[in-house]
Design a protein that fits this description.
elongated; 13 strands; 8 helices; Quinone Oxidoreductase, Chain A, domain 1; Rossmann fold
Length: about 325
């Protein structure tokens, strides 16, 4: 933590903002490497301020389209209580879309919700009425908890989540509408999948990779689809993304013609606006339940990130900086 003074005056095109919320997310682990292995993601640099998703309020503006009191967001918001930013890099927010829950713009009504919704629509190939079964790994996390609910909304007849505690599994079923949930730390994931997905798996929303994904892929049907959202179990390893499958699992994937393509939500910018409106409508109607874990104080941001990476949270991890 450092305390610094920001300039009294701002330049043309700039705004002075007060930070309200910061988001901490699994992709940030990649930014701690020398090279993120992704052209759209810049590595964090030593002695520089860390950044990520953030929401704040404009306190002073010399930008033509932003005025004092506007709520704004950015994917590259500095981890500071206040900052001077280029107004052209900020997106103005409408709090009414989320009934004043501004943090939702960093989660369910932001990049996390977009990843879940567009991942399902672009790579899931869900057909309403086709009696498809969907499995979600990392199901109690920010993206997985939304993806499972969206699976039902888009037409899957059965949704099964995989999480790491009995509490998380209980919440997935009782609050999030999952049909069943597996605690991967108890018993065989493969045996539980066979019991809970007797007709096999048609859609797999993959947030974790590794052994869990190997177990799911082994039970996927012919011409089924993997939505490759994240590989959190592999982020501490030095390997290409997406990580290669084990030879035996890759053989299954090819023999059953299972699609497994890298999904990047930023490739669908033209669909973001309409998709955010859809997410907000579902939230307002109570069809999409939102869970957040909120930590208070800039000084707790690192601890919040660590908690999220070690699976200590349910839903989206947020840091409240000011109110």
């Amino acid at each position: 933590m450092e305390e610094v003074t920001i300039p009294d005056k701002i330049q043309e095109g700039q705004v002075c903002v007060r930070t309200l919320y910061l988001s901490v997310d699994p992709y940030m682990r990649c930014r701690m490497n020398e090279d993120t292995d992704a052209e759209y993601l810049r590595a964090w640099k030593l002695s520089e301020v860390a950044d990520g998703g953030g929401v704040g309020i404009v306190e002073d503006s010399k930008h033509t389209h932003l005025v004092k009191g506007d709520f704004v967001t950015s994917f590259n918001w500095p981890w500071q209580t206040k900052a001077i930013l280029d107004g052209s890099l900020l997106q103005k927010l409408n709090p009414q879309l989320v009934d004043g829950h501004l943090s939702y713009f960093l989660g369910a009504a932001g990049i996390t919700g977009l990843t879940a919704l567009l991942g399902m629509r672009e790579k899931g190939h869900v057909i309403p009425g086709a009696n498809q079964t969907m499995v979600v790994s990392g199901a109690a996390g920010s993206c997985g908890s939304l993806a499972g609910q969206i699976g039902h909304l888009e037409g899957c007849s059965r949704v099964v989540g995989i999480a790491g505690t009995d509490e998380k599994c209980s919440i997935l079923v009782s609050e999030m509408g999952f049909d069943a949930a597996i605690n991967y730390k108890k018993g065989s994931v493969a045996e539980q999948l066979q019991e809970l997905c007797p007709a096999g798996v048609d859609v797999y929303f993959d947030n974790v990779g590794g052994d869990i994904s190997d177990a799911v892929i082994s039970q996927m049907n012919q011409n089924s689809h993997i939505i490759l959202c994240g590989q959190i179990s592999q982020y501490n390893k030095d390997m290409s993304y997406p990580p290669p499958l084990a030879p035996a699992v890759e053989e299954i994937q090819k023999a059953r013609n299972i699609t497994r393509e890298r999904f990047l939500v930023l490739n669908y910018m033209d669909k973001h606006e309409a998709s955010v409106l859809q997410l907000c409508q579902w939230i307002k109607e109570g069809k999409l339940k939102v869970r957040e874990t909120v930590t208070r104080g800039l000084e707790k941001t690192g601890a919040a990130f660590q908690s999220m990476m070690t699976g200590g949270n349910i839903g989206k991890q947020m840091v409240l900086i000011s109110e």
